């Protein structure tokens, strides 16, 4: 093993379920996942992150503390991964850390995307160089700063003979279209798990709808489904991206105003809604195979809804392509750290809308 090619990737996504951390070897032409783990967020930090993701009082004071707490959790996850892998910190070339998105405003007067987590503190705690702040360079060149994973998806999942879609169902869902003889494409389709998680937490005090059981207990509300699908976001063409700060309970409650639906029926409809927005996006392209990653890969009701809307497509998970669906995004940020070191552009202008392809990230040294 060439130790100079060992990178750690950290991803904490819009589902707010915890921290995915992976150890990846880039010594060979194909990245090799060596080890991985999920460190769930402490309940207090998860609640603080959910709150800071929406406008509120005294945000700067709260943010300073949350960023330090988040870095401490990232460092704890790295420590556990190293111990689990039998690897020393000195053997790691760099950590690629996405940070936790609390705002994504690609259509603001001055577009911005804000990921928190004190990267200086993370470097100091781990003794490992950190590459972070991946999105703002793309935005500086006119892009939306998202999605950033398509270049990685192309590197490890492309098949020259088939139209293939990599569908990441996190809090927000995004897709990468790997179409033979066509430019690489990708964009956010809209809500993945975020509304499902919010609704089940509100009514069942559960962080997510395990195996889609709550949705399965309800009945579809066709009129509500049509109303949800009328949001202008779904009529936009790419490049486009969004965030959980837009698709959240306040947005849903606006559509539920004046209604008195059973909570399980709303959950059932939200499942079909998320699947419907993904299917609407995918159906516009000659895709034969869909490979799902992210937390949504473990929701059979959501996947069954997607299959019913796309009967012509094969739907599986990225495990069939050699990477478990839990770890694809964290691997992507290990790859982006590697790309930073190799001076490989990490964005795709056709995906983000940037004027040019650029090397992404910022370096944070441990000393």
Question: How is this structure best described in words?
Answer:
The model has no long low-confidence stretch (mean pLDDT 95). The strands form three sheets. The chain has a six-stranded mixed β-sheet. The protein has a five-stranded mixed β-sheet with strand order 10-9-8-11-12, sandwiched between helices. The chain has a two-stranded antiparallel sheet with strand order 5-6. A hairpin with a 6-residue loop joins strand 9 and strand 10. The protein folds into two domains: 183 residues, Nucleotidyltransferase, domain 5 (2-Layer Sandwich), CATH 3.30.420; 172 residues, 2-Layer Sandwich (Nucleotidyltransferase, domain 5), CATH 3.30.420.40. The chain has 13 helices and 13 strands. By secondary structure, it is an alpha/beta fold.
